[in-house]
Design brief:
It contains 4 helices and 8 strands, in the order H-E-E-H-E-E-H-H-E-E-E-E. It is an alpha+beta fold. Strands 1-8-3-5-6 form a 5-stranded antiparallel beta sheet.
C-alpha cells in the first residue's frame, strides 16, 4: 500500500479562463508538476477537468491554431437556439456537447520526468463556456 504513494501523485490547478471562449495552454504547468512529481522517472501524466463544458486537447499553439480550433468548434457547435439544454447564455447548450468532441481528459507519456510531446504539441484546456470563468484541472502522475 505504501508503494502507491511513491508512484501516484496528484495536484489540482485552479484557473480563471474569463468570459470569452479560450484555449488555455497548460504545458508549462504540467512540466512544473512533473519536475516535482516524476523526479526523472518514466510514467504517465493524466490531465482531467471535472467540468461538463470544457475539454483537453493536444495541439499546436500559436501560429493561429488556437483560433482555428475555436472557429472550428463555432462551426460545428454554433451558439444559437438549436440546443435543448437551454439554461445560461444563448447557445450554452453547445458547451455541454463540447466534451464529446474535445474530451475532458488526456493521458500523456512521461520519459525521464518530462512530457514526451512532439515538437509543436502543447496540452491545452478548451473552454467555450462564457458563463463559468473558473476552472479546475487535475494533474496525476503515475510512474
Amino acid at each position: 500500500m505504501g508503494r502507491m504513494a511513491d508512484t501516484f501523485t496528484t495536484r489540482t490547478l485552479e484557473l480563471t479562463t474569463g468570459s470569452t471562449e479560450t484555449v488555455h495552454d497548460l504545458t508549462d504547468a504540467c512540466a512544473r508538476f512533473l519536475r516535482e512529481a516524476a523526479r526523472g522517472r518514466d510514467g504517465l501524466l493524466n490531465v482531467f477537468t471535472p467540468h461538463a463544458t470544457a475539454g483537453l486537447a493536444v495541439i499546436e499553439t500559436g501560429a493561429g491554431s488556437d483560433d482555428d480550433l475555436l472557429e472550428t468548434l463555432r462551426t460545428l457547435l454554433p451558439a444559437d437556439d438549436r440546443w435543448r439544454h437551454r439554461h445560461g447564455s444563448p447557445g450554452h447548450g453547445r458547451d455541454h456537447v463540447l466534451p464529446a468532441f474535445v474530451p475532458p481528459h488526456a493521458t500523456l507519456p512521461v520519459v525521464g520526468g518530462e512530457l514526451a510531446l512532439g515538437t509543436w504539441q502543447s496540452v491545452v484546456l478548451v473552454d467555450t463556456n462564457r458563463d463559468n470563468p473558473h476552472r479546475t484541472v487535475r494533474l496525476s502522475f503515475l510512474g
